[in-house]
Specification:
The chain is an alpha+beta fold. Helix content is 25%, strand content 27%. The chain is built from eleven helices and 24 strands. The strands form six sheets. The protein has an eight-stranded mixed beta sheet with strand order 7-6-10-4-3-13-16-15, with no helix packed on it. Strand 1 and strand 2 form a beta hairpin. Helix 4 crosses helix 5 and helix 4 crosses helix 6. The longest helix is centred in the C-terminal third of the chain and has 18 residues. The N and C termini lie close together (4 Å).
Length: 500
């Protein structure tokens, strides 16, 4: 997937809006972006969202989406105007039950509520809209909404919400969600969290109801529509599990099921390493047409190509690891992407070790040896890859080497204590690489600048693979022996790299 930047809408200053209940205040428009260094116009300023209630109807014939999103928020400053990130055609907007004027411009929906908004004021924002999302493009000519033969996919990173619901679209503003989507009978509409039932309607449609009760980033909120085989169960830990397999998987169906049905097992293993699983439900969705996998909160989505060579639990381990690293603890800026992809990739090393298909050290040695010193791979910095390289292969593979270098530096006991402490202290929030480094030093009692500088922030191939013994390194082996797990991990990363 291409990384895009959204142009900032030109918002006129509203100097006349200075009186709130008779008191003069220095009110101003909310910023049309949160100021992320890579994507400055992502998200918006001036308010904080607590909940989205998304209630939609979708007709696959003609790709017709319509409905209403209700947003509960609180103003963080005195506002004359504020923005939502949204691309579809808007019919009406109400702010605290009063009709509001609005202007749509290339993904920025600018609202001007009557009388303005006071800092600390509770906001109920209701947006009614209708459009054909697959025909809607951003100013770069891209659409993240995928029309499929039996439905649609609203899945994407770093953004997707603008094609199906208005939002404050940045990981620093998480919220809870209710997603309710009506589709023709015989079609399924799948989203995050707990499945709270179906409602059969009189017009030949069925409404599917989903609830996410833990803070959730906008890009991690998904909608998958089509015809699926549904498997519901309860995990050994007592959580609801909801898996869905497209009826179009063909010969890949059994391999997909042999992988995704092991989600509770993989989750239990990772919980031993990372701490308690942070969410209320588990599951996965497998479909053609996606092209990659994405760690949607509680329920990852996978393209069927991950299973074209048989069962692949490595991609499952990768995406489930994101539930801790990326979903519960999200990036503060997209520059901090190593906190997501480096640790999810290292989870594959851990899983390989667990199932006896190659130790973490063997995987680290092989990855290190696979890239010559003059390979461009070593020129991308996992700690600051740049907006065009957020999903570069080096963020995944060199990112995993950085995690292993930390493990080697502090030892296993402190390493896993660092991971569990991070997941516990930063639960349901966002964070930076610098915060992780500080926590690692606090827990380990060691000074770790050299580890992070070498593996995250210095171009070029480090002199030695992390953890490789000096006598092995001195033998100058061209490439370490390939662990049994590498074929599946390589396939997984090739397809994840398609996300760029």
């Amino acid at each position: 997937m291409s990384i895009r930047t959204k142009a900032t809408a030109a918002v006129a200053s509203a100097a006349a809006m200075t009186l709130f209940a008779g008191t003069a205040l220095a009110a101003s428009p909310g910023a049309p972006g949160v100021g992320d260094p890579y994507f400055p116009t992502y998200g918006n300023g001036g308010y904080d969202v607590s909940h989205y209630d998304i209630r939609l109807n979708y007709n696959p014939n003609g790709d017709q989406l319509s409905g209403t999103t209700t947003i509960l928020a609180k103003a963080t400053q005195d506002l004359t105007q504020f923005n939502l990130d949204f691309l579809l055609k808007v019919k009406s907007v109400r702010v605290n039950n009063v009709p509001s004027s609005f202007v749509s411009d290339n993904g920025e929906l600018t609202l001007t509520p009557r009388g303005g908004v006071r800092k600390g004021q509770d906001l109920t924002i209701v947006v009614t809209y209708a459009d054909s999302p697959s025909t809607v493009k951003d100013r770069n000519g891209f659409t993240a909404w995928t029309k499929t033969p039996d439905g649609a996919l609203a899945i994407g990173e770093p953004e997707i919400s603008a094609w199906w619901y208005p939002s404050n679209d940045h990981p620093t503003d998480k919220a809870t969600f209710d997603v309710n989507v009506a589709v023709p009978n015989g079609v399924e509409a799948i989203s995050n969290g707990t499945f709270v039932g179906q409602t059969r309607q009189i017009n030949g449609y069925t409404r599917w109801n989903w609830r996410s009760t833990k803070p959730q980033a906008t890009y991690l909120t998904f909608l998958t529509i089509g015809q699926f085989e549904i498997r519901q169960s309860t995990t050994p830990s007592g959580q609801p599990s909801f898996n869905a397999y497209s009826e179009r998987l063909g010969e890949h169906a059994d391999a997909a099921k042999a992988s995704v049905e092991r989600t509770p097992e993989v989750t239990e293993f990772l919980a031993d390493n990372f701490g308690p699983y942070p969410f209320e439900a588990q599951g996965g969705v497998v479909t053609p047409d996606l092209g990659y996998a994405l760690e949607n909160q509680t329920r990852s989505n996978y393209d069927d190509a991950f299973f074209r060579r048989g069962a692949n639990t490595y991609v499952v381990a990768h995406e489930i690891a994101h539930q801790w690293f990326g979903d519960s603890v999200s990036v503060h800026h997209w520059r901090d992407i190593w906190l997501n992809e480096g640790f999810a990739s290292y989870a594959e090393f851990l899983w390989s070790e667990h199932v006896g298909e190659g130790t973490a050290q063997e995987n680290a040695d092989f990855v290190y040896d696979s890239y010559p010193a003059d390979d461009p791979f070593w020129q991308v910095l996992p700690g600051d890859p740049g907006a065009s390289n957020v999903f570069d292969g080096a963020v995944y593979d060199r990112g995993a080497l950085a995690v292993h270098a930390l493990r080697v530096a502090v030892g296993d006991e402190k390493f896993f204590e660092i991971l569990k402490t991070w997941a516990a202290e930063k639960k349901y929030s966002d964070a930076t690489i610098e915060e992780f480094a500080a926590l690692a030093e606090r827990v380990s009692g060691q000074q770790l600048d050299q580890v992070f500088q070498t593996w995250l922030f210095t171009k070029g191939k480090p002199a030695q693979a992390p953890g490789r013994s000096a006598d092995v390194a001195s033998k100058s082996l061209s490439v370490a022996a390939e662990p049994k797990s590498r074929a599946k991990i390589k396939l997984t990363h090739e397809l994840l790299d398609a996300h760029k």
